[in-house]
Design brief:
The protein is built from no helices and eleven strands. The chain is mostly beta strands. Strands 1, 2, 4, 8, 10 and 11 form a six-stranded antiparallel sheet that branches. Strands 3, 5, 6, 7 and 9 form a five-stranded antiparallel sheet that branches. The protein starts with 12 loop residues before the first strand and ends with a strand. The relative contact order is 0.39.
């Protein structure tokens, strides 16, 4: 639903948090989600506010891998995830965004996780310290 009018002050960006990852690659053969170490935490000022999550990263798989965004232990993009890699050994850059309504004023951790979706190895940040992955959290003042 797109509001036809917004009360003054609503929809403003109240805070921005950025997390970065610029280290060696992370890889897994696990068929359950594992951390990529790209994560950031934010404490919303109101339960009615939304969190816009954006990010960039490099990924690679030898067979079939999936990347997904989590709030704590909750997979926000279940069941498929953001990206599914099926091209073997092709390093690829990705960008993502997701608008979350956590309904919380407690600290919230968002993280990118990955898993093998059958066989092979899945890589996060395969270029190591030559690449930088980022995640940004923007608290948006609530509306409607």
């Amino acid at each position: 639903t797109i509001p036809t009018s917004v009360a003054p002050g609503q929809g403003k960006v109240l805070q921005v948090v950025q997390g970065t990852y610029n280290s060696s690659n992370v890889n897994t053969t696990s068929t359950t989600y594992v951390d990529t170490d790209l994560e950031a935490s934010i404490t919303p000022s109101s339960t009615s506010n939304k969190i816009l999550i954006t990010g960039t990263f490099q990924g690679q798989a030898t067979a079939n891998g999936i990347y997904s965004l989590f709030r704590g232990t909750t997979n926000l993009i279940a069941p498929r995830g953001f990206f599914r890699l099926e091209v073997a050994n092709k390093q690829t850059g990705y960008a993502f965004s997701f608008l979350d309504t956590p309904s919380s004023s407690s600290q919230i951790e968002y993280k990118l996780r990955m898993k093998n979706n059958g066989s092979g190895t899945v890589y996060f940040n395969p270029g190591g310290s030559d690449n930088m992955a980022t995640i940004q959290l923007l608290e948006i003042e609530g509306w409607l």
